[in-house]
């Protein structure tokens, strides 16, 4: 049976975005599943309904309240709901969370897989098996299981969809640094399995792309950004001589990958790093 049916065109109020399971339409019948507030805030103004997922649902309460209070209340009182999801859990637990996410609005049109952990800095000789397994379980296995059960439902419902997997520049040929063997392995894996997913899921009109972010200015990196050596590295090795913020540098790309305008785009790894990985040298060589 050919599942590649033309989908009903949605009226586009804008031209836009991609960070999770959301298809943006004027009638607001799209739904997005994603994890991090930084990625999920932008879709709220675009008629998108959002399912925010995290291991602790209470951490998402303020985000959902913010989104639900920002739209046209005459159209819909609830634009966002929170679902408990532990991507390091066993498959039955992940499948149950995906089912709750799907039932929240009756569909998921886009999925943003951006849950992950960095782990500690350890060499190949010092890293423990437990640390390796923990990081792989969260960054790679969990991503695959969430995608598996979301896309099964997309297939059964004959919905076109978009999956955006957040990896890292450490998963690229020129992005590795010592001490990150497990993290690097997991993010390289994300880039690779995204391409295989794109090959396999294209028959069901499901697109899969990965995004490899570099270093961004944020609350987490505020202290690092004040270091003089980082400014030196940026000026000497980064082609654009700057370090950006995830919004709009990252969120704009995700919006594009969710939107209909990227319907011809799948199987790509999008690098968002101001060109930092182009020189082919690790940052410590510039100190």
TrEMBL record:
InterPro entries hit by this protein: NAD(P)-bd_dom_sf (IPR036291), Sc_DH/Rdtase_CS (IPR020904), SDR_fam (IPR002347)
Q: Which PROSITE patterns is this protein grouped with?
A: ADH_SHORT
CDD domains from the entry? SDR_c (cd05233)
For this protein, the record's Pfam families field holds: adh_short_C2
Q: Which domain of life is it from?
A: Eukaryota
Q: Which SUPFAM superfamilies match?
A: NAD(P)-binding Rossmann-fold domains (SSF51735)
Q: What is this protein called?
A: Uncharacterized protein
- The species this protein was found in: Ananas comosus var. bracteatus
């Amino acid at each position: 049976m050919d599942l590649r049916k033309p989908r009903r065109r949605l009226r586009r109020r804008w031209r836009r975005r991609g960070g999770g399971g959301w298809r943006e339409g004027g009638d607001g019948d799209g739904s997005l599943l994603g994890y991090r507030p930084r990625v999920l805030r932008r879709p709220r103004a675009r008629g998108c309904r959002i399912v925010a997922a995290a291991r602790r649902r209470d951490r998402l309460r303020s985000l959902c309240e913010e989104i639900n209070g920002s739209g046209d209340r005459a159209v819909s009182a609830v634009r966002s709901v929170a679902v408990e999801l532990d991507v390091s859990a066993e498959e039955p637990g992940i499948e149950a969370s995906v089912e709750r996410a799907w039932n929240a609005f009756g569909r998921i049109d886009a999925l943003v897989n951006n849950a992950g952990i960095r782990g500690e800095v350890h060499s190949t000789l010092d890293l423990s098996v437990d640390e390796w397994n923990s990081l792989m379980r969260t960054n790679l296995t969990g991503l695959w299981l969430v995608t598996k059960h979301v896309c099964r439902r997309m297939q059964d419902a004959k919905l076109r969809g978009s999956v955006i997997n957040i990896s890292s520049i450490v998963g690229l040929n020129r992005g590795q640094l010592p001490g990150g063997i497990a993290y690097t392995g997991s993010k390289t894996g994300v880039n690779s399995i995204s391409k295989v997913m794109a090959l396999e899921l294209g028959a069901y009109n499901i697109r899969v792309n990965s995004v490899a972010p570099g270093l961004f200015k944020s609350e987490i990196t505020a202290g690092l950004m004040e270091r003089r050596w980082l400014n030196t590295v940026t000026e000497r090795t980064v082609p654009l001589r700057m370090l950006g913020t995830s919004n709009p540098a990252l969120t704009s790309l995700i919006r594009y990958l969710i939107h209909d305008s990227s319907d011809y785009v799948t199987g790509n790894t999008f690098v968002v790093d101001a060109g930092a990985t182009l020189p082919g040298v690790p940052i410590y060589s510039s100190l």
